[in-house]
């Protein structure tokens, strides 16, 4: 089974987010990391995306809901509809409003009951930005730890108003304070590549999904060595579609110099283990 751990379909609320509303900007980034844009992204076609997933032999994609400011929001209802409308193809990650602790915890419990497998937390991208170790988030982390649901934490790439919002020291504090909480660091903690890999070595509850920053961005060779070395059991394959094409990214990734056993783990085995699939 191959699982794409960050895939944003061209449907519903996703179409109102910056990744689709600013297509020229998105396609510029796609070319910067060495790919040609996907027709499914440019034409905003769900049918073309499913065809591209089939051509790439991607079994399932993780669809991430979000509550964000300028980046745009995607409701849990949108994610639920995508998962329900395409049985067996997508895995849902729910979002929360961190400003209301009780409501956030209720949302998490209900989402898990509804079949969501992960909770997405993007501290610096909230309408009122937070840092990863903001104490308002701690009861939410604790609830996720208590009920055993993994968290996707976006603390890399465009993670907030400035670079401080992806500070790996703050991520380290969360990992240390909640040792039984599995945390997937989306966008690979980029550009803090060596620092986030140190956390992966130091904290066994960190899982890493470099996604689009794996592809020929500064430091990507270090992700590669980690995927074929000490982090082979906790590295997760992700295209970050629509920023990278599903098919082109997969064809490029499977040719990387990663031992076959490790490649199988990175491209699906680790995600299956993390999500209990």
Automatic annotation (TrEMBL):
Superkingdom in the source lineage: Bacteria
Gene3D superfamilies on file: Metal-dependent hydrolases
Write one Gene Ontology MF term.
Answer: carboxy-lyase activity
Domain Amidohydrolase-related per the UniProt entry, residue ranges: 37-277
SUPFAM superfamilies given in the database record:
Metallo-dependent hydrolases
UniProt-listed Pfam families = Amidohydro_2
Task: List, alphabetically, the InterPro entries matched.
Answer: ACMSD, Amidohydro-rel, Metal_Hydrolase
Q: Does the keyword Nucleotide-binding apply?
A: no
Keywords, comma-separated and alphabetical: Lyase
From the Swiss-Prot or TrEMBL record, give the protein name: Amidohydrolase family protein
Q: What is the lineage of its organism?
A: Bacteria, Pseudomonadati, Pseudomonadota, Betaproteobacteria, Burkholderiales
């Amino acid at each position: 089974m191959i699982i794409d751990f960050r895939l944003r379909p061209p449907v519903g609320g996703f179409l109102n987010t910056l990744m689709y509303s600013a297509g020229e900007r998105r396609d510029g980034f796609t070319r910067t990391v060495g790919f040609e844009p996907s027709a499914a992204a440019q034409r905003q076609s769900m049918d073309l995306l499913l065809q591209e997933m089939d051509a790439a032999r991607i079994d399932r994609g993780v669809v991430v809901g979000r509550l964000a400011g300028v980046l745009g929001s995607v409701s849990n209802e949108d994610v639920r509809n995508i998962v329900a409308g395409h049985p067996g193809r997508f895995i849902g990650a729910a979002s929360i409003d961190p400003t209301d602790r009780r409501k956030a915890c209720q949302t998490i419990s209900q989402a898990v009951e509804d079949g969501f497998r992960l909770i997405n937390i993007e501290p610096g991208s909230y309408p009122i930005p937070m840092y990863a170790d903001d104490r308002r988030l701690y009861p939410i982390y604790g609830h996720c730890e208590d009920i055993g649901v993994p968290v996707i934490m976006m603390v890399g790439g465009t993670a907030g108003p400035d670079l401080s919002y992806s500070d790996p020291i703050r991520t380290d504090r969360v990992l240390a304070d909640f040792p039984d909480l599995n945390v997937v660091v989306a966008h690979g903690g980029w550009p803090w590549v060596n620092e986030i890999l140190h956390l992966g070595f130091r904290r066994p509850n960190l899982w890493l999904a470099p996604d689009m920053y794996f592809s020929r961005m500064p430091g990507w060779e270090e992700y590669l060595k980690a995927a074929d070395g000490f982090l082979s059991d906790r590295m997760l394959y992700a295209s970050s579609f629509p920023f990278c094409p599903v098919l082109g990214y997969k064809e490029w990734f499977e040719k990387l110099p990663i031992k076959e056993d490790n490649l199988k783990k990175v491209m699906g085995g680790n995600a299956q283990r993390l999500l209990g699939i």
